[in-house]
Amino acid sequence: MLVTSKAILEASMQAYKAGKPFAIGAYNVNNMEQMQAIMKAARETQSPVIVQMSRGALKYAEDKYLRNIILAAAELNPEIPLAMHLDHGNSFETVKKAIDLGFTSVMIDGSLMEDSKTPSTFEYNVKITSEVVKYAHDHGVTVEGELGTLGGIEDGVGSGKEHLTNPEEAAEFVAKTGVDALAISIGTSHGAHKFKGEAKIAYNIIEECRKLLPNTYLVAHGSSSVPKELIDIINQYGGQLEHAAGVPFDVLQKAITCGINKINVDTDLRLAATAATRKFLAENPTKFDQRDYGAAAREGIANEIIAHMKAFGTAGHTTDVPNWGLDEMKAKYQGK
Ligand code: G3H
Ligand code: 13P
Ligand code: ZN
């Protein structure tokens, strides 16, 4: 069932308010096998799910192929609440295109300029985000904004400079823009190399934001766990990934108790697919059918996502999601 991400995130918010917090994983998708893996994991754990596409994904798979793969997943899995989300939208045009394609949720990352590299000003961020909120809400679409910048650079996304979110500024930002969800910078970063030593995130920033923004969904980007088992398999079968480090599940679980509602995961899917593919090809040197290693990758990704859905507490929550599609949300935003 295709719904807005607001519907799914509201289930997380209500659970937090009831003292039984859980978070929704938002998984990046670029092709059919990844999407099938995500839906297998959602079915097996009965989890609502947000799937998100970056601009790189929409370019790689050509946007209409990808859109129709997601629609097929919704059609084949009517019992799973599923939101189609744009990850790191960089301009009004990118967001408009996604909404015109049928996305039920968009991110406008106004923490960076349109080049997705240069940190922007607060005023620029408020202006671009407000424009997106107006257009998106007129169409019933959920909006995620971002305040503060993450460290690390992933495929050209990110300034490489970390600027943690100021909670008072976050409250002002939400009041001025009307965003539904806010990505906050708490010390994580995109990619497979997040920490030099121990994984440390700023729980106090989450708690402060949660206090000042009791009805805004809080989002943690750059939250892959980078499991050592996957790194070891990749390196055992010819890979060379050194000093990889992510955010362990227990750190994310504490972040959820502090008020995080949405957790973005991309790198872990990449690692799971690479580990399974390398292992399969090394153990089966005579095989060359793309379906064979594609299936191995799909299985590896599904297992990784099942672990995330259990760790984030998403498992078993499909029936807690209200049926808020685009039409219902359009009416709600219009105050009807
Ligand atoms: O935010 C970054 C995501 O991991 C997407 O990465 O732009 O390489 O698709 P990508
Ligand atoms: P990871 O690189 O930690 O998976 O983060 C993904 C992300 O934040 C996508 O927006
Ligand atoms: Zn991100």
Secondary structure layout plus pairing:
Blueprint: H1 5-17, E1 24-28, H2 32-45, E2 49-53, H3 55-60, H4 63-76, E3 82-89, H5 92-101, E4 105-108, H6 122-138, E5 142-147, H7 167-177, E6 181-184, H8 203-212, E7 217-220, H9 228-236, H10 249-258, E8 260-265, H11 267-283, H12 290-311, H13 326-333
Parallel strand pairs: 1-2, 1-8, 2-3, 3-4, 4-5, 5-6, 6-7, 7-8
The chain binds glyceraldehyde-3-phosphate, 1,3-dihydroxyacetonephosphate (13P) and zinc ion.
What are the defining features of this structure?
336 residues; TIM Barrel; eight-stranded parallel beta barrel; 48% helix; globular; binds glyceraldehyde-3-phosphate; binds 1,3-dihydroxyacetonephosphate; binds zinc ion
What does this structure look like?
The structure is a single chain. This protein has helices at 5-17, 32-45, 55-60, 63-76, 92-101, 122-138, 167-177, 203-212, 228-236, 249-258, 267-283, 290-311, 326-333, and strands at residues 24-28, 49-53, 82-89, 105-108, 142-147, 181-184, 217-220, 260-265. The chain has 13 helices and eight strands. Strand 5 (142-147), helix 7 (167-177) and strand 6 (181-184) form a beta-alpha-beta unit. Strands 1-2-3-4-5-6-7-8 form an eight-stranded parallel beta barrel, surrounded by nine helices. The mean pLDDT is 96. Helices cover 48% and strands 12% of the residues. The radius of gyration is 19 Å and the shape is globular. It has 336 residues and is of the alpha/beta class. The protein has one domain: TIM Barrel (Alpha-Beta Barrel), CATH 3.20.20. Zinc ion (ZN) binds at residues 88, 190, 221-222, 264.
